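Hey, resending since the last one bounced:
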Amino acid sequence: MSQRFLALAAVSAMALAACSAGGTTPVTGPSTPPVSQSPTAQQSGTQAGDQPVDATPQTPSTVTLAFGGDVHFANQLAPRLDDPAAALAELRPYLATADLAMVNLETAITTRGSEQPKKFRFRAPPAALDAVAGAGVDVVTMANNHAVDYGPVGLDDTLAARAKSPVAVVGLGRDRADALAPAVLTARGVRVAFLAGTQVPDWTLATWSATAGRPGVASAADPARLAAAVRRARSQADVVVVYLHWGTDYTTCPNPLQRRTAAALAEAGADVVVGTHAHRVQGAGWLGDTYVAYGLGNFVWWRRNSELDSRSGVLTLTLKGRRVVAERWTPLRVSADGIPREPEPAQSRRLQQQWLDARSCTGLAGQPTS
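The structure tokens again:
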């Protein structure tokens, strides 16, 4: 990404960033990809020799964040992983132009394991992580209802792939603290914490929610637990982002649990809350000063049951300090090959208006309220 400098720390739920004279020192963990340090920020105060320097408060830094929806490599998408670097390269103009980008990776990362008792099961080799990196993605959530589709062996493989991943992976871990831990990435001097959780009431949540002594996905069935993780992350970062797998399949409005969860996370200090799962684009806007996007729709996806299923897009947010000061929705449609692409201009304008209209059933505002 242009002019991007990243410093990543995959931290435990109780860890705090250590400080040094040169700035924040990353606390590395098993999911930490290679780190490139950002340039040293301009310092205020005194220099060697006690000569005063300008201590005028600096204007809050501006950072852009891009979000796509659900991604996997099932069926017709699988051959793309023969060339991971090129697999999703055509999506780079939508994702890599932001300072940081995030999607939901909805698949077990394994070639082994046994099929679990579910209707749909998705898996992909570790090349899937290289493919999303090639699209310009910096962090993925795996807190979803397909991360453990191939049982304990598949989960072990997924955690092993996380340790070597070229992108940060959040939302699953070797225990609850690990699964709820944020990834903290730095862009333009702004520390952004990314957390994730799933609320989808299916076999995965019931069987493979991470606990104090067992690996699995980060559960958001109890919003208070995820809210506590947000409060911890608040002390580690300038901006806190939560990506949720939530909502009711094939609906265009958030359900009551989504709305209660968004309110709890906003109260806890989340600055951005986004989500997927419903296979529909749902409304977005401001809940107080917190930006909420209830549903981003399918993104890289193997099937289209209807015209509504094909609606997709990339959400790009501009933040100044902690506040989202601009939103941009780029409408896309999932094509027959599973890749989202821009429709012709007239259709794109209609989809843009439909995205704006979807706010009407969310209780969200068109701008911050303070």
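The CA atoms of residues 2 and 277 lie 31 Å apart.

Sorry for the duplicate.
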